[in-house]
Structure formats: C-alpha cells, structure tokens
Amino acid sequence: MNILVAERSDFHRNGIKWMLASSGCEIEQYTEVQSTSEFFSSIETYQYHLVIIEIEMLIDDEWKHFKKLTNHTTVVAISDKKDFDLAVKCLESGIYRIFIKPLAIKTIMDVILKVSSDSKRSANEGSDSDLKLDLSLVKKQWVNNLIYGHVTHVKEVWDQANLLGCRILPSVVIVCKISYLREMTKNKSDHWKKQLMTTIYNKVEEFCAQYSLITIKNYDKFVVLYSPKKGEQKQETLRNVKKISYELFDWMNKETGCTLYIACGNEYKDPMHLYHSYNEAKRLIDLEYYFSQGKVIHYADHPQLFNDNIIDEIELLPLGDELTKENLPFIFSQLENNLKVMKETGVSPLYYKITLLYILSQISNLFIKNEKDHFKFFLKQSESVINSETIEEVLPKIKQFLIELADVDANSFQHIVIEKALDYIHENYVRGITLEEIAEFVKRSPYYFSHLFKKVMNMTFVEYLTNLRIKRAKELLMEGDYTISEIASLIGYQDPNYFSRVFKAISGESPKQWKTKKYLEQTKN
C-alpha cells in the first residue's frame, strides 16, 4: 500500500507514522510532506492508496485540484477544530473521513486497515483478468506474498511464476539498502529522495536482469529473489548468492557511486517457508549500524548471531572514582570491546546505543553539578547517539567527549565533587544523613569520599556536619523561644541531651549558658 501524509506538525506527523507502523499493513511507499506545494507535487508524480492530510493546509483555490484526487484515492482529513462548514466541504469533495485532533488511535487504525484490505482486494481482482493484467503489479504482489508468508497454496505460486517467466521457484532472499541514505537525503525533498530511489532501483533491476533475478522496491530497500539452477546443491547455491551479491555491490558502486549494504538469508526450498529467508536478511539489515562502508553479509556465515543470552554476559563499563588521562584508554577500550562482542553476536544496535547513553549519563553526572544542566547535556548527547546511522559516526564524538573531561584540572574536578556533596549536606543536615549516603549521591566509594572531603575541606565529614548543625542551633537560639528539645530536633539530633553535650564541646558552654551570655552582650550594647 502507498501512503502519503501531509501534516505541518512534527508531533502529529510522527504520531501518524507510529500508527501506520503499528498497523501491520504492508507499506511499499511512505511519503511525508509539510507544505501544500510538496503535497501537490507528490500526488502529481505518484499514485497513493491512502492520503492523510491536515485539511487546513488547503486554501480556497486548491480545493478544486484536490477534488480530482478523491476520485481514485482514499483521503482522510484531520483538523484542529470542529467546523460544520468545513466538514460539509470535505464530504462534497469526496473525503472518506474527517478526524479532529487529538486523534483517536483505534478509530483511525480501523480506517487504515480497511484501506489496506481494499487495496489488496483490488490487486487480487485485477490479476484475475488477462485483459487488465499488469505484470509489474503481479510481480510485486507475488514477491510480497512470498516474503511476508501469505502463500496458501504452492499451485498459486507456480501459476504466477509461470506468468512471470520464472521456471524455477526462488529459494533465497537478498535485501539491499543504500548506506548513508539519511545523510545523502538530508535537507532534500521527498520528491528528490523518490527520484534517487527510482534511479538506484533501475540500476539494481538492470543488474538483476543479467542473472534472471526477480527484484522489487520495498520502501527504502530492494528485495532480490535468487532461484537456483536445476540440480544445484545447497553449498553451490550459497556460493552463487555470495558471488552475485559481491558483483552487485561492486557494480552499483561503479555505476552510481552509491554503497550498498547487502544481506542474504538462508536457503529454503519450500516456497511456503521463503519468508524465513526474508526475515533473516531483514534482521541482518538492522546490523548495518556496525558497518560504516557497506557490506555483503550472509546469515549462514554467522551462526552465533542473535544470541539474546549474550546481553547478560556483557559487562557495563566500570567507572572508577575519577576519570583521568591515565584511565581514559582503558575506558574507551572497554567500549570498543563491548562493540566487538555485540557486533559478532548480532545484538541489536538499539541495545548498544542504550548502553552508550547509560555510560554517558554516569560519567557526565560526575562532572555536572546542576541537575538541569546535566539533563540538558544528556539530551544533547542522546540526540547524537540515537540519530547516528553507524558506529563510525558516534564513537569519535564519545572519544572526544571523554578527552575533554579528562583534560579538566584534577583539583577543579575534586572541588566539583565536594560542591555537590556540600549542597546535599546543606539540604539534608536536619535528618540523620551519613557519609555512606553522601558518597553514594556523588557516585564515589565511602573510603575515597572520606579522604577527598578531608583533603579539600581540611576537616572530616563528621566535623563539618557537626559545625553546620551547631551554627544553625545558635541561630535558632537567638531567633525565638525554642526549647532545647525543639532545636535538637530541627537540626538532626534525636537526643536533646546528646545535642547539649556536642554544643558544649564545640562552644565551651551549654546552649542555655551560651544564649544567656549573648543576650547580656546585646543588652549592654
């Protein structure tokens, strides 16, 4: 099914994209536009089964052109407001449904599924008539039925195969993707991207014709079906698939300058099971993140791939008490070791990205005292990690980030840690805080934090906490008629007698004597 979404809001456009992805529909062509000019350019150059449009994008003169679209395409309108006149205008223009934001997920999903079902039915009906036969459509439908597991009878597969001139059924699925496609199409219109994809696909089709391979364009990927020669054994099939894949890789690079990432599934002689080969190739495509210059990869060569148990065996980066130039190489080598394990075992790149973000958050938390600044920094780093297409994009940025942190003066670094600890102490001294609690807050061991605190503050943590409490106690003694028990409770002491002993040890007098003395001094003045 071909779908066009015209919506100015990034939020709503992404929401619609999520609903479409969650619907389970087979989407061959998905296009997004943000302006009216892009919208009309798209519908003039391509035929869509479903169009979802923010109806406020249309102005008066554009409605008459828009009406032609509804004659052959299902159009769903979305609007920010309830407007009776607008609803009537939509109905008169042949719009199928109109929805008011915020969108009701279930209702719009029902519409998407119905349109998908109708488009399939139309395709099936069209293939029954020799007069209206479109071999391109038959080929696309046939391949999709095979790779998505929609085959119900082998006879049905053979009938369409004979129609397409295919004398041997395919047994291996190859999926190709253009490396760095997002970078290539950055700041380009959907129309430009569509033209690029068509040009590349035509070249892929030209190559495949030399080997009698069947190929279709599937959104931003190309699916190629390999049919073995008569009597060809499994190992020979594997060699031939590899040979053709490498030739396609080199030929496309020479002809177009584009680098392909080519993934090959295993062989399945039974056409009812060919979808397994497609699923294997598709999973391999997800691993493109680990390869920066394109690659030809075959599922059979990596039996250890997609071992979910390996995640439990990967150790997160151990962070010491300080990040220094001395331990920087160790930290980065640990990152690269994790990458190697994940790459070799086919762990989802998403897991690797999450691991990177966790490590960045832990490290930056050691240096950035303000929580708001820490969050802003984390969001910025998250964007670069999540949006990276390959590991080659993100690793140099991570390394540079670690180098910059390691260049921070050691004394400055230590003071940052102590400042964070002091802020925490001043906010929580009224309760029974401990050295272990604060050490955990600043992400240090109690032993290291105790020595660092004394080094920077020239007193122990207990001495500092005690002096802070006694200072506050003196303020309370002078502020009002608090009892000794009340003051003790307000500064973190549960036992008033213990508080009095500590007060006398620090000040040389009991709280009552100190207050009387200060009162007399003020009276004389």
Automatic annotation (TrEMBL):
Entry keyword Signal: no
InterPro entries named in the record: CdaR_GGDEF, CheY-like_superfamily, Homeodomain-like_sf, HTH_AraC, HTH_AraC-typ_CS, Sig_transdc_resp-reg_receiver, Tscrpt_reg_AraC-type_HTH
Molecular function terms from GO: DNA-binding transcription factor activity; sequence-specific DNA binding
Domain of life of the native organism: Bacteria
Biological-process GO terms, alphabetical: phosphorelay signal transduction system
HTH araC/xylS-type domain residues: 419-517
Pfam family, one: HTH_18
Gene3D superfamilies associated with the record: 3.40.50.2300, Homeodomain-like
Keyword Hydrolase part of the UniProt annotation: no
Record domain Response regulatory: where: 2-116
Keyword annotations of the record: DNA-binding, Transcription, Transcription regulation
Signal peptide extent: none
PANTHER family: ARAC-FAMILY TRANSCRIPTIONAL REGULATOR (PTHR43280), HTH-TYPE TRANSCRIPTIONAL ACTIVATOR RHAS (PTHR43280:SF28)
Protein name per UniProt: AraC family transcriptional regulator
Native source organism of the sequence: Paenisporosarcina antarctica
